[in-house]
Specification:
- By secondary structure, the chain is mainly beta.
- The protein has one domain.
- About 10% of the residues lie in helices and about 45% in strands.
- The chain is built from two helices and 15 strands.
- The strands form two sheets. Strands 1, 2, 4, 5, 7, 8, 10, 13, 14 and 15 form a ten-stranded mixed β-sheet that branches.
- Strand 1 and strand 2 form a beta hairpin.
- The longest helix has 21 residues.
- It is globular, with a radius of gyration of 20 Å.
Length: about 240
């Protein structure tokens, strides 16, 4: 918790600390992001620690000629557990958003991620979004996923990212642990991906709330791998060097 640092538009807050780990949120301190803004957030989970990040309020990417960039980086150390539920990202009409999510898992680390995208505010069409998710562990790339939503190509994109008439998309990702029940998409290594679209947030929640609760519980209740202790050094002796 000593590492909490407030950014220009985002401020992390610890909600509680207990046997279930640290529960936290990220508060927006101003409206937006505005067109041309670049929000960067980095989350580091220590070895053997558990962090649960809860959503607070939706993020509204506002319209403008400049591209908005949203970068999220997560490093989960050995045996760490991370549950991250992002607040809905609303891409307003006329907004152009590029979002990048990068996850690095050390040995024995596991994570569950949830994100939601809403095209347009109430009564308006959506803007443009290009979103990428890249996950790596100590053996290499686990997952590289991309989603493009563009009103200029909505007819060609129909049935690819969104079903016709749908304006909300949600993605669940389980990493480093097998899905407790049958997964929509199983990863090459332990993990799963599930995606759904809907006409509104309530309908989407009906599709994803059950698997998300199951995945969250699987991560939080999983036994963490303890960090490897440093080799002992006799008093007055120099620490071991490379061999």
């Amino acid at each position: 918790m000593d590492g909490l640092r407030r950014g220009e538009r985002l401020a992390p807050r610890v909600l509680s600390v207990g046997a279930g780990g640290v529960h936290a949120c990220v508060l927006p301190t101003q409206a937006g992001p505005l067109a041309g803004d670049h929000d960067r957030l980095k989350i580091v989970v220590g070895a053997g620690a558990t962090l649960v990040v809860r959503p607070v309020t939706a993020t509204v990417a506002l319209p403008g000629a400049a591209r908005t960039r949203l970068d999220l980086e997560m490093d989960v150390s050995r045996g760490g557990r991370l549950v991250l539920e992002e607040a809905p990202l609303i891409v307003a009409a006329g907004a152009d958003v590029s979002r990048s999510i990068a996850v690095t898992l050390a040995a024995g680390a596991i994570a569950a991620l949830r994100d939601t995208v809403v095209l347009g505010r109430s009564g308006e069409p959506g803007g443009r979004l290009v979103s990428t998710l890249r996950v790596t562990d100590d053996t290499g790339v686990v997952l590289h996923d991309a989603m493009r939503l563009d009103p200029a190509t909505s007819r060609q994109d129909a049935h690819v990212a969104l079903a016709p008439g749908h304006r909300v998309a949600g993605t669940l990702c389980l990493l480093g642990i097998e899905e407790p029940a049958e997964a929509q998409f199983a990863l090459a290594r332990a993990g799963a991906l599930r995606r759904a679209s809907a006409t509104d947030l309530a309908e989407l929640d009906g599709e994803l709330v059950e698997p998300w609760a199951r995945w969250t519980q699987a991560v939080v209740s999983s036994r963490a791998t303890p960090p490897t202790p440093a080799p002992a050094t006799a008093p007055g002796a120099a620490p071991p060097g490379p061999t």
